[in-house]
Specification:
globular; mainly alpha; single chain; disordered C terminus; 76% helix; 388 residues
Length: 388
């Protein structure tokens, strides 16, 4: 229990902001939400998460973990209660602010705790818990809302009870146990410009904003169904694909990885856009899986580039900055997609997302070419003549 509890808490923390995704078609109908309000609800979470992660989410020491875990878990429970009471977009946005505070406060401290208790295996555990929580939150909320009474209440109250119980187990067991020896591995070198890394992170999260915020409603509109588990399935597959591809394809093994990853995302969005022409659930799922594969590679590639040659003790700071830039751009872009969907159609929003992603890929290509053209060329050494 002592080893498993931090991972279980991370799963529950990541599930909370994703539960609204699985229920969004229900909220859209029950609250009469326009697409713009759907994207605003999604983006509010990112706007709260970004400054929290940037300014107070990275603990300076082990002693600073515990209040962050406690307060962050409390914010997660508050988000559950607020969502269970919400009856319109305004209260939902307030709940999303609490969710952003929760994730921003807790994840850095839980990452340190998991690494302390599991060693290098903790990195895999963190990645698994993050994706598992996001996918389970989306899919489980959709199932509960579809088949149990009080769809807007039951799922959040159940989650609040679980979150409170697991958080209590974690914060009451603070013994360090065995200490993991810090890795002496030399930071990986990269010839890519840091801006290319940030652009990959932006592409990854812009696609995530589109899929998480709008894809369930997009599917409901085109496929003519109100079945919440079915509509949550593309988002779940997107998230799982993003994790699986990172496990299947080792870093820096794909040729032209920074651009290839973004092209895979664009291809996935293009397949999803084709659903407007030929409505088909398998086609929508294929687009989600393809975009998810690109997202996983793009986010990992970007993080590797921006953290290259960085001292290990600076990795948390660089990772926080990288995530903050990606989240902020995703929030702004997602609201933009919501505007397009409200003024025009949901299909036009998907096309707008594809155009935005093509622009980011083009910018990445230009940045990489400029960096290579300005890279110093190694000069051959001139042999020194010697005389007797």
């Amino acid at each position: 229990m002592r080893t498993a509890a931090p991972g279980a808490l991370l799963v529950l923390i990541m599930a909370q902001p994703n539960m609204a995704t699985g229920m969004m078609p229900y909220y859209r109908h029950a609250w009469g939400l326009a697409p713009l309000l759907i994207t605003v609800i999604f983006a509010t979470y990112l706007f709260a998460l970004t400054p929290t992660l940037t300014f107070i989410g990275t603990p300076p020491s082990r002693n600073a973990w515990w209040w962050r875990i406690g307060v962050g878990s409390g914010c997660g429970i508050g988000a559950d209660i607020a969502m269970s009471l919400a009856d319109s977009a305004g209260p939902a946005c307030a709940a999303r602010v609490l969710a952003g505070l929760s994730v921003g406060l807790v994840t850095g401290s839980l990452a340190g705790l998991i690494l302390e208790r599991k060693g290098e295996r903790g990195r895999t555990a963190m990645a698994t818990a993050t994706v598992l929580g996001s996918a389970l939150g989306t899919i489980a909320a959709a199932w509960v809302a579809q088949y149990l009474p009080a769809p807007g209440v039951t799922v959040y109250l159940c989650h609040a009870v679980l979150l409170g119980g697991v958080a209590l187990i974690v914060v009451t067991n603070r013994s360090p146990g065995h200490r993991v020896t810090a890795s002496r591995a030399v930071a990986a070198q990269s010839t890519e410009p840091p801006m290319a890394g940030y652009l990959n992170g932006i592409a990854a999260w812009v696609s995530a904003g589109l899929v998480v915020a709008l894809l369930p409603s997009y599917g409901a509109e085109l496929l003519g169904t109100t079945n919440l588990p079915l509509l949550a399935l593309p988002v779940g597959l997107y998230l799982v694909s993003a994790w699986v591809v990172q496990r299947a394809a080792p870093p820096a093994t794909l040729r032209g990885e920074p651009i290839l990853a973004q092209l895979i995302i664009i291809a996935g969005v293009a397949v999803a856009a084709a659903v407007a022409i030929a409505p088909s659930l398998p086609l929508l799922l294929a687009g989600a899986v393809l975009a998810g594969c690109g997202q996983g590679i793009a986010y990992r590639t970007g993080l590797r580039i921006v953290s290259a040659a960085t001292a290990p003790d600076q990795h948390a700071r660089i990772a926080s900055r990288y995530a903050a830039v990606a989240y902020l751009c995703a929030a702004v872009a997602t609201i933009g997609f919501g505007v397009v969907a409200t003024v025009a159609t949901m299909q036009d929003a998907v096309i707008a997302a594809a155009i935005a992603l093509i622009a980011v890929a083009s910018a990445t290509t230009i940045v990489r070419k400029r960096a290579r053209s300005h890279a110093p060329v190694a000069q051959p050494e001139t042999p020194t003549a010697t005389t007797a």
